[in-house]
Amino acid sequence: MTDRPKLVGFNRLLLAFVNSWKGFRGALAAEAAFRQEVLLASVMIPLGAWLGKTGIEKALLISSMLLVLIVELLNTGIETVVDRIGLERHVLSGLAKDVGSTAVLLSFTVLIVTWGFVLFGPV
User: Fold this and answer.
1) Number of separate domains in the chain
2) Calpha distance 77→56 (Å, rounded)
3) What is the rounded distance in angstroms from the CA atom of residue 66 to the CA atom of residue 103?
4) Dihedral angle sign, alpha carbons of residues 116, 118, 121, 123
5) What is the value of pTM for the model shown?
6) Which domain CATH number covers 59?
């Protein structure tokens, strides 16, 4: 533990932004799935802004894509910590990674369901 004083105000926000940017760049460099999802988002987010008729529709279409990115980043964090602890196979390590992967799958389900209902209405 350091005796350094805690940052407050603008300096804390600036450091938080810098750390977030490092995390984003690190995920882009290390995770093919995140790179693919960022590429998908670069198409889907403008498309959602264009296809949504109301502000709520635009928000739903865009935020459902952002949810996929958020969950992928959390999954990457889980996988990174599990790998940091050890690379040997362990039931709990496998479960942690599988659960994270399932969360990503469910976020894609939210994306598909949201886009389906907004663009095509209830079935």
Assistant:
1) 1
2) 31
3) 14
4) positive
5) 0.87
6) 1.10.287.3610
In a domain, 76, yes or no: yes
Q: Is residue 78 a part of any domain in this protein?
A: yes
In a domain, 50, yes or no: yes
Q: State both tokens at 82.
A: 């599990």
Give residue-wise pLDDT tens across range 4-46. 778 778 888 899 999 999 999 999 999 999 999 999 999 999 9
Task: Specify if 89 maps to a domain.
Answer: yes
Length of the chain, in residues: 123
Cα–Cα distance, 96 to 75 (Å, whole number): 9
Active-site residue flag, 72: yes
The domain in which residue 98 lies consists of 33-120
Out of 37, 72, 79, 88, the active site residue is 72
The helices-and-strands tally (H runs, E runs) of the chain is 4, 0
